[in-house]
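Quick illustration, no need to memorize.
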Amino acid sequence: MTVLRLHTSDGVDLAAETAGSDGAPRAAAVLLHPHPKMGGDMRTPVPDHLFRTLPASGIEVLRFDFRGAGGSGGSHGGGGPEVADAEAAVAELSGLTSLPVWLVGWSFGADVSLRVTDTAVAGWLPVAPPLQQPGIDASGGDPRPAHLLVPEHDQFCSPGRAERVTAGWESTTVERIPGADHFLAGRLGALTDLVVGALTGDRHASSDRGGEGQASRPV
């Protein structure tokens, strides 16, 4: 793991960490965490679990704290300014690898990811997106792939609602996470497998899960 600082286009310094893949690299992902005002940061259980387990499946990862969260400077901006945070993370990881860089966000981070249209982004993999922020359809007319992973029992946006909201979006699919709610308690290993499959094209991938963990913080 490497600790670093990111610098956004509007002058905010962000705390970040990277982890290289174990073995031959297959893809790269920027991880976006849940709502800072609800206790979210890059060590919240869902992004933390992905950061620890994805490298075992050949995926290079970068996680960071949004402005106003964890070790980052600045103050929370409600979602709009956080787009610049994600863009800084994409630029950093793109400079470290020749692999396609995906945005993998959970909850608030998922909605922020859908507002990012940076040309360096290979695709979007939002996990449990509330689909509540303005501008979440920014990627809707884009030919790059967006694959939403929506818990079967999500308390904030059901799979059915996700399908309705994204019905007119280009190159967009919705996949249910069976037996899971928004916080994915007890389903983190299954989530890793789904993320690995989506990022590598191997839908039968089985990762080194490193334990299920519990996603118990509010988002």
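The chain has one domain: 2-200.
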